Amino acid sequence: MPAEADRAAPHAAVEAAKQFLSTFKTTGKTPGLILVAVSGGSDSKGLLLALHEAIMRGGLSAFSLSACTIDHALRPESADEARAVAAFCAERGIRHSVRRWQGEKPATGIQAAARAVRYSLLADAAQEMAALCLVTGHTADDQAETITMRQGRSEPDAPGLAGMAAGVLVDRRAWVLRPFLSLRRAEIRDYLKARGEGWLDDPSNSNSSFERVRVRHSMGGDIRAAMDVFVDAGEARRRSSERAASLLGTQVTVFEGLAARLDRALVADMANPDCRRAVLAVTAVIGGRPYLAGRETARRLTAFLTGGEGGRMTAGRVVFDVRRSGAYLYREARDLPEIVVQPGQKEIWDGRFLVANDSPESIVVGAGGETAELRARLIAAGLPEPVTKRAVKSALTWAPAQPPEERPDAPLSLPSTPRIESSISLYDTFLPCFDLMMANSIATLFGRDRYLAPPVHDVLTEKTAWA
Ligand SMILES: Nc1ncnc2c1ncn2[C@@H]1O[C@H](COP(=O)(O)OP(=O)(O)OP(=O)(O)O)[C@@H](O)[C@H]1O
What we know:
CATH architecture of one domain: 3-Layer(aba) Sandwich
CATH class of one domain: Alpha Beta
Shape: globular
Oligomer: single chain
Bound molecules: adenosine-5'-triphosphate
């Protein structure tokens, strides 16, 4: 058992928790629930304990904590591990819930699938509890490993070098914040030991078939070099996002989510990284892609757009049509999918449109929504006629899944028109806080609501205690 003095001694982990709590916009007695994602490993267990201690000792009764463990049901011991976390929480009077990954597991890409499911289940829990945010136990060691892995793949001005964001908006509905991003894992373990607590060791942390584990070993605990890169790149990315947001707001026009015009000045300046990011972001949304084009595509595109020759080029499923009045972008009319949307369901079609079917009948959604009305509207809005003609080929259309003559027993009412809006795959699932301004400009251009603001003040400035 640790000595009583050790139990009470202030610790860097508790200081980090206190500092984090002081950044909330919530003031005075406004109650706020923080949902802590606890796997049972040292980092998340240390985070829960440090937040609990900071709240209890600091008299911060405006805050309450709840913990949630995701049981991925991939290892036989996972249910017991979740129960161990439950017991730890019960001893401290902290509410705890377990969410289980139900159903079929994919045969390949299990890590990525588990991560996607984990964040989605955690966001469900946060939303149901009306939590201010979710918090995870990511550390400076995780950050350094992420940066080192990305460094191997990126160019010096690449956004990836900003590393993990201190805040990420998940599914447009829950902010995930990382209060320990500047704290070393060793400090967290030291804190748990001082409080007489153990933790679970995830066996995948020593499995060298994972790149992260190999990188961790190669770094040998020295994270200084990677963190120095981060301090510069995180701030640079936030400033770049701010400048790109302003370019998007002034030099881009979007036509019903189908096509976009980039002003000539923006196109001419493509060699500038802010312009390039703005253009690549619009390209991703018009093409229905969840990521920016890779460096080779970006290079080809820059050469084409700045070449001054005009004409058309295709990149990332998007046609670029360069004319005197600007560069026009629209989805190429190839490989357009057909999907069925069941009653009461919402689906994303082609990565570009969110279709909500509120009717009691299934509907089929596909390409072919080209109508004289749509063409007239786009032309009236300023889209050149030849561009309109090609752009409308990738417009969405829908119909009842079963034609009326084939379903004599069906209700007489036809499905009502589905609700359709642009999907921004690039930011709708994971939006790092340093891209928030740019994402809001994109949302405005594509007729969507702005993204949920984070509940804390300084997450946007990404100020890091690491230096
Ligand atoms: N099974 C789980 N249940 C609840 N929270 C979890 C679980 N696994 C991970 N977490 C949360 O995520 C944090 C990071 O864990 P880990 O490094 O294993 O995840 P990751 O997949 O690398 O996360 P990311 O993909 O965001 O980098 C943990 O500190 C914890 O807060």
